[in-house]
Amino acid sequence: MTGSSVAHGRLERRLGVLDASAIGVGSMVGAGVFVVLAPAARAAGDLLLAAVLVAAALALANALSTAALASVHPTSGGAYAYGREELGAWPGFIAGWGFVTGKTASCAAMALALGAYLQPDAARLWASAAVVLVTAVNLLGVTRTAAAAKILVLPVLAVLVWIAVAALGADPSAAAAAAPQPGTPGDGPASGSMTGMLQAAGLLFFAYAGYARVATLGEEVRNPRRTIPLAVIAALTTTVALYLLLAIALSRFLGLPGLAASAAPIADAGRALGLPPTVVVAAACVAILGALLSLVAGVSRTLLAMAREGDVPSALARIASLRELLSPGTRTSMPAGSPSGRHPVPWAGQVAVGLLVLVLVQLGDLATVIGFSSFGVLVYYGVANLSAWRLGARRPWYCPRWVPALGAVACTVVAVLLPPASVLTMLGVFAAGLAYRWARLRRGRSSG
């Protein structure tokens, strides 16, 4: 089979529960845990733990809806595919556009965070190198992605749990020299308010949202009706427990003002606890690389689904193995267990995502793109919840109808309470996407 004949081919089912769970945890335990706790503390003040719990509850509702949908529709594309099946083409497009734009912003944020940890003065250079690296690894195939996720996530979890447990057992006075204090009023925590707490929950959602990465692999997991729900719930449960532990430990050890003012609270806590700075930096870089690895793959799968339906240029639906790309004319479909580089991947989408992230890395700002990401992904999950609500008798037992209803309302409320600049910018991005689809459909009717 040649490259021209596999433009709309199928992906192979080779991932089990452990593989899919590792990808989900690797997607969540990334840049978010290292950068988002401080801005969340500034917004929520003494309601930070409530914000963590609200974000977790929202993520749980979304996870159950996503798992229910993925078990009924085991295909690539996540809520884009689910929205098309259950609600229609336009809601599906809104979901897909929200995921692609929001997660592309998230990829840029993660790459910038990686560069800042490695060398702040050359952050954009390091970020660009990271994007090139993860794009190349993803081109080797999803088996390499799953294996890398499992290898990357374990040492990161070990470092984070050690810091959290050590901080809970340490004397908070030991952190006095390490915890920065607010230099301006805006650097300190706000007085607790419901609006601030919900805004913080929206920011924290940036850190939780990676569990949808499992659903976008619906075409590549074995026994998806069993594997996807188990993997989604396992990944989310692990991550929620870790984030709660870290929020409690850092709030106690650094103090709420110190946590709110810190640019790198985990690094500050680790230094005060006597952990070599290189250990925390290495853990941050490994975690961010793991999350970036999964996210680039996830966005490319949604682009693949959208391209198959004609909602983005059809060239983005091209599938081929790396071996075929390097040696045109070779076979694409290889037996399970073949060496990496021989499995078909949505290479056109992966390359397109990598190039777009490279552009955003040069132009973007870390704090702002977190807001962009949260808004886009909350819209995506709003459509997912509405789609799950429409499943009726097909909905699994673990997702009663009130769960997606509550999730849809919560996504809407939290999204509109994000920082106004993020909301307005992303509304413009959605308007541009809708205009593109309308124009394409109009051209199609005219030519017909």
From TrEMBL:
The protein's name in its UniProt record: APC family permease
Key words of the record: Cell membrane, Membrane, Transmembrane, Transmembrane helix
Membrane topology designation: Multi-pass membrane protein
Coiled-coil segments on the chain, per record: none
Pfam families: AA_permease_2 (PF13520)
Keyword Protein transport on entry: no
Chain ranges passing through the membrane: 20-41, 47-72, 93-117, 123-140, 152-170, 190-209, 230-254, 274-299, 351-383, 403-436
InterPro entries: AA/rel_permease1 (IPR002293), APC_superfamily (IPR050367)
Organism expressing this protein natively: Zhihengliuella alba
Protein's UniProt keywords contain Transmembrane: yes
Broad class of where this protein is predominantly found: membrane
Record localization: Cell membrane
